[in-house]
Amino acid sequence: MTEAADFFKSDEAWKWQEMLYRYIIARWGYSRALMLWFVVDEINGTEGWGKGDHAVAEQWCRKVHQFLHEHDPYGRPTPAHRAAESRNGGQALPDL
User: Fold this and answer.
1) CB–CB of 45/94 below 8 Å?
2) Which CB contacts under 8 angstroms, 24+ apart, belong to 42-46?
3) pLDDT tens digits, 70-96
4) Is 57 exposed, middle or buried (0-12, 13-18, 19+ CB in 10 A)?
């Protein structure tokens, strides 16, 4: 489908991700026991971040956030963050 370094910018990968997210929301989204949709944990540890474009990776996070908020019937939070080693830029990705 795509190289790992190109994952966050690949239209083909996004097409498959959308189908997966639609399935996950349809399968488990009904449950009020589900607290949140965790977008990504330690994004700066991925090849898409390390070998790719940081801005594109953060745009991908916002795209996932937007998709989940548009399709989740309960509007659950969508956290995402970088690893602790990037404290100079902050851990949380803003506005997610």
Assistant:
1) no
2) 42/81, 42/82, 42/83, 43/80, 43/81, 43/82, 43/93, 44/82, 44/83, 44/85, 44/86, 45/83, 46/4, 46/7
3) 999 999 999 888 876 555 555 556 545
4) buried
| Structure tokens given for 37 | 């949709």
The amino acid sitting at 13 is A
**E-state strands within the chain:** 40-41, 80-81
Nearest C-alpha neighbor of 6 from the set 56, 72, 40: 56
**Nearest 5 degrees, angle CA 22-CA 59-CA 31?**
30
